[in-house]
Design brief:
This protein is mainly α and 168 residues long. The longest helix has 26 residues. It has a single domain, classed as Up-down Bundle (Four Helix Bundle (Hemerythrin (Met), subunit A)). The chain is 54% helix and 10% strand.
Length: 168
């Protein structure tokens, strides 16, 4: 299997777990946050869903500049919107990877900046792994903690969760 095929397979596999988690997000609790410094449930769930498209964005661009307004936030009004954002982003990432050249992912530098300030410069493949995929998994796990604090049953990601285990 090529590097690109492995990335696509992982994105497809993990999107199933992410969709299960996002499907549990109660719209009526969107404004809830566990701490004043924390994101709201809506902000965290939206960010998690939105990250599904970052691999495709990285493949198709050479940089992201937070100062230029390129990064658009989707309009999310309910749980179904979260799932649609995930599905759209996942498909965009897979489509972009299918047309990508492996040597460009390995050798081409991608830049994260805020105006004149360079925040990071790494090969595209490193940004895809860290800022797209691992970043999504991190926030998905954070989302599971928010949901647990709201007493929402957590779906299993890599096997059954405590909520899915038979009661003895």
């Amino acid at each position: 299997m090529s590097l690109i095929q492995l990335l696509i397979a992982e994105i497809e596999h993990e999107s199933v777990s992410t969709q299960k988690m996002l499907a549990c997000v109660p719209s009526e609790k969107f404004d809830w946050r566990p701490h004043p410094k924390s994101m709201t449930l809506k902000q965290l769930a939206t960010h998690t869903a939105n990250l599904s498209g970052w691999a495709g964005f990285i493949v198709n661009t050479d940089y992201l500049d937070f100062a230029d307004g390129t990064l658009k936030r989707p309009e999310i009004n309910n749980t179904e919107d979260l799932i649609q954002e995930l599905k759209t982003g996942t498909q965009q990432s897979i489509s972009a990877l299918k047309t990508a050249k492996e040597e460009e992912l390995i050798n081409k530098i991608w830049v994260l900046r805020n105006g004149n300030q360079i925040l990071m410069e790494l090969p595209k493949i490193k940004f895809i792994r860290s800022m797209a995929m691992n970043h999504l998994y991190h926030h998905r796990a954070q989302l599971s903690v928010y949901l647990r604090m709201l007493d929402v049953a957590i779906p299993g990601m890599y096997g059954p969760s405590a909520d899915e285990m038979p009661k003895s």
